[in-house]
Amino acid sequence: MAIVHWPVELQHGQVALRPLRASDGGEWAAARQRNVSWLRRWDATQPPGAEDGARTFRAMARDWNRQARYGRMLPFVITYGGAAGAGARAKWPLVGQLTVSGVTYGSARWANLGYWVDEQYAGRGIVPAAVALAADHCLFTLGLHRIEVAIRPENKASLRVVEKLGFRYEGERPRFLHIDGDWRDHRIFALNSEEVGPGLVARLQ
């Protein structure tokens, strides 16, 4: 049975995760627009013949939060308090997105995790902290057994994230996901609950 804890907010230092909201549309769109060239190589795309049809950001946010309330996914935005004049956490800027998807219970109890970050905030340790927060929440609070991350072999920044957090490399899956207009190979990294000790946030400390 799914253990649903939604909405939820998580924080480690100046990095926080909170639910994606319909009201985030403007800030989210602005971040995506200024990062088009930065993110294009890693963005998921729809394969030919599988278009779901265009939908608004508001409709997407409502749908994802509905799925979160059923325990199927966790649609977070990443916010950061280290920006000049960020003030209280409620005013921290949106600097990226982290989504836990494919949440499965029963005898599997696993999920996969994906993310992106605004280029101007890259290299500040934001993504490792966000991944650690989400993974600890999934393993300790939701009771999942396994967290998986799929990364393109060319994505050196993401490879450094999983290396820093101690994810185990499990091999390559050819033409695994449709990214940037074609089916792309991915490397698979994972951690089981028995492998994380006191948690990934503790590893950062």
What does this structure look like?
The chain has 205 residues and is α+β, with helices and mostly antiparallel strands. It contains six helices and eight strands, in the order ββαααβββαβαββα. It has helices at residues 25-34, 36-39, 57-69, 126-141, 156-165, 200-204, and strands spanning 10-12, 15-19, 74-80, 94-104, 110-117, 146-151, 168-179, 182-192. α4 crosses α5 (156-165). Keywords: Acyltransferase, Transferase. Pfam families: Acetyltransf_3.
Q: What brief labels describe this structure?
A:
205 residues; alpha+beta; Aminopeptidase; 6 helices; 8 strands; Acyl_CoA_acyltransferase; N-acetyltransferase; GNAT_dom; protein-N-terminal-alanine acetyltransferase activity
